Q: What sequence folds into this?
């Protein structure tokens, strides 16, 4: 009986060892797959941001505000969109997602063609619609990827910087003459989302001292300039809006980069 129990115990030990070994391999594979999906989600958000930046830059350059900066930003964004889109196109095989990517690419091609034409109010309105279409598709793809890996960390991989580009886009659109209620509505909604995101970043318990200092700087700037954004109907400050949204975006990008290091365990508190 004792020998039999020893034999059963030995079998259990061997079985547990095999299970542990299998789980270790699966965990390694899962980690690789997760990293690949995170890369794809970032690329999706990247296409969204580039679409918003392209339209913003087209509006600014066309209305002779920050022409040098906007023209340079436009060219870089057109190239970057294509690079990030290629990552998605080469890696996503699901037929429904592929079809959505095709629609995004068609919209981008049309948007790129618009930017090569002389600026006009009609072209500006078309560009606004195209960037909204691309952004909607890109965010859908990103969210779908996050759902597939049960990604729930709201302070990472969230496309926060897209909202700041949208703010500058809507502001300049209104100044350019697209003075409909929808532009004001979208601006206020986007400002609200950006405000909540900045607040969430600032309160994240994972922040290092340097990250808290950066977010304090962001909050101080945001506390002043968000009022300019909400006064879209009063206008008069297009270059200030352009510059402040770029400054905010730069700091959010650096904050997100540091957060990635914290998550990977490369930065101490």
A:
């Amino acid at each position: 009986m004792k020998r039999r129990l020893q034999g059963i115990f030995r079998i259990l030990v061997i079985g547990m060892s095999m299970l542990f070994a299998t789980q270790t391999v699966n965990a390694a594979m899962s980690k690789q797959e997760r990293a690949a999906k995170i890369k794809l989600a970032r690329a999706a958000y990247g296409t969204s941001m580039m679409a918003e930046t392209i339209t913003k830059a087209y509006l600014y350059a066309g209305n002779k505000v920050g022409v040098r900066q906007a023209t340079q930003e436009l060219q870089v964004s057109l190239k970057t969109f294509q690079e990030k889109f290629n990552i998605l196109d080469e890696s996503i095989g699901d037929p429904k997602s592929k079809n959505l990517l095709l629609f995004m690419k068609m919209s981008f091609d049309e948007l790129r063609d618009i930017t090569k034409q002389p600026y006009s109010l009609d072209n500006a309105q078309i560009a606004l619609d195209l960037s909204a279409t691309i952004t909607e598709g890109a965010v859908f793809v990103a969210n779908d990827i996050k759902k597939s890996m049960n990604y729930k960390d709201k302070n990472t991989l969230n496309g926060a910087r897209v909202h700041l580009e949208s703010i500058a886009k809507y502001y300049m659109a209104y100044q350019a003459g697209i003075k409909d209620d929808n532009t004001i509505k979208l601006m206020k909604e986007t400002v609200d989302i950006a405000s909540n995101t900045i607040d969430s970043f600032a309160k994240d318990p994972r922040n290092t001292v340097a990250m808290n200092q950066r977010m304090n700087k962001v909050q101080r700037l945001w506390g002043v300039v968000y009022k300019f954004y909400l006064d879209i109907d009063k206008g008069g400050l297009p270059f200030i809006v352009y510059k402040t949204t770029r400054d905010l975006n730069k700091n959010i990008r650096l904050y997100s980069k540091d957060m990635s290091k914290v998550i990977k365990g490369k930065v101490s508190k």
